[in-house]
Amino acid sequence: MLHVDPADPDTVVLFDLDGTVTDSFVGITTSFRHALTRLGEPVPDEDFWPSIVGPPLVESFALLGIAGDRAADGVRAYRERYDVTGWRENAVFDGMAELLADLAAAGRITAIATSKNEVIARRILEHFELARGFATICGADDAVGRSAKGDVIAEALRRLGVSPTERSIVMVGDRSHDVDGAASCQVPTIGVEWGYAHAGELEAAHDWSGVPDDNRWIVTSVPHLRKVLGV
């Protein structure tokens, strides 16, 4: 993994969506409850819910021992609600729209790399008038079997025509799967603490993903992220 300077104007910045750019907790958790009810499964207590915001849906169902065809049924039930109303139960984190606008004004290349269904991710970003600022919006696509974060990031890099062996690239995300997926593509991650990671999750993810010490950043606020990105 190359040393990356996130403040370098040539550094490409990939953003996660849920828990990083937007606060999607209500829409995701309410739709997941709907899916569990449709499956006849018990609804977990409140401590469970932050863990499902960000990772691929099949991984979230697996946390409850739901796999295979049952998980596929759960995903369909989830989307029954989320794709109609859940995606609107969402808000842009304070200061994030302005940060993205300033990155665009500075000529920085930015992209979305999310485990969310790509069509829905684009719909959300268009709803909040953020889509035009990104060079590409890359998400999960069942038709081609793309759901793991590493696969999404790899596809985003392919579309951008950039390689971490030739160009400075950094991921911005709030969960361990962001760090792990980016590391699998030789891309370091700026971890953000306003999302849904449990205490110590981002630090541990840097450790188990083998990210070098000089490619580790954890920021506590959008102004802190601005400072790291140099805008």
TrEMBL record:
GO terms for molecular function: protein tyrosine kinase activity. It comes from Gordonia spumicola. It comes from the Bacteria. The lineage of its organism: Bacteria, Bacillati, Actinomycetota, Actinomycetes, Mycobacteriales. GO terms for cellular component: cytosol. This is 5'-nucleotidase. PANTHER family: 5'-NUCLEOTIDASE, PHOSPHOGLYCOLATE PHOSPHATASE. It holds the Pfam family HAD_2.
